[in-house]
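Provenance

Sequences were taken from public entries as deposited. Structures were produced by running a predictor on each sequence independently, with no templates supplied. The record for Bifunctional diguanylate cyclase/phosphodiesterase from Azotobacter bryophylli is shown for reference.
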Amino acid sequence: KAKHSGRATYAFYTQELTLYAQQRVELAISLRQALLKEELRAHYQPIHDLDSGRLIGFESLVRWQHPERGLVPPGEFIPIAEENGLISDIDLWMLEQACLQMRAWLESGCRLKFVAVNISSRLFNRGILDLRVAEILARTGLPAQYLELEITESTVMREPEVALEQLQRLRELGIRLAIDDFGTGHSSLLRLKRMPVHKLKIDQGFVAGLPADSEDAAITRSVIMLAHSLGLTVLAEGIERPEQMDFLKRNRCDLGQGYLFGKPLPVEQLAQALEEIRETDTCSR
Ligand code: C2E
Ligand code: MG
Ligand code: MG
Ligand code: MG
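Predicted structure for Bifunctional diguanylate cyclase/phosphodiesterase:
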């Protein structure tokens, strides 16, 4: 009897797994077509200077406008794209979109400082990212200083020596570099010291508990001090409540990003955010 129910359970799981695997295969195939059919969308989330409150840049975040499923968030398709390598094509497409968009914003008189683009470990570790970035900058005509690449701490620390070389080549192009999700990837301080980056982005997991959670508060304060002692800019992600922002301002965090300032939106819906910086004279026209 036990054997029988065991087999039944086994059969049940096999069916479940097959269905799951089947769905992943289908998703992988339709994702490949999504790139060709231009179903991917770049959304942009505002980044503010905490001291002045001003909008100073945007982070681009990919979405999939699926014909049946609607807007699919990256958490649902990036893991699959990472498995089959499609993520590199997605990242390069996003990179080009962001450069074109930033150029358009600058040409319309917006004095934004940068647009940030996420880079997967797959693309980063191929060793040709600097060549691709140089091509895209040349093709889109965006001056290098306006582009920032976000590489996660775990990507950078996977093979630190290789990462160091790639980061140096990227830096030579004149672009900016940020370490994303900082605090989740086991950096050694010695290695961090040698990384030629401009910015640390404190993971939203530490910002969530501010200001009440004493551990989150202690970690956040330490990362801000660490960044500043290394001469880096520091940004806090996932700011949703005014108390979190007050804590971060009190502790001299430079930049902030989160729903309190604005959610990621398609360009058509950013007019209002951009209008605000026109009023404060960050846009010249
Ligand atoms: P990330 O780069 O750390 O991006 C921040 C994520 O936090 C975004 O999720 C953003 O929508 C979300 N977020 C921003 N403010 C808040 C807030 O106040 N509260 C909460 N709860 N969440 C907030 P999203 O857009 O779903 O992206 C998730 C992750 O997917 C990104 O994390 C990034 O690792 C990856 N990703 C997104 N776009 C791309 C891309 O074009 N290429 C690659 N390689 N990865 C991407
Ligand atoms: Mg990011
Ligand atoms: Mg992050
Ligand atoms: Mg993240």
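The first helix runs from residue 2 to 36.
The longest strand covers residues 55-66.
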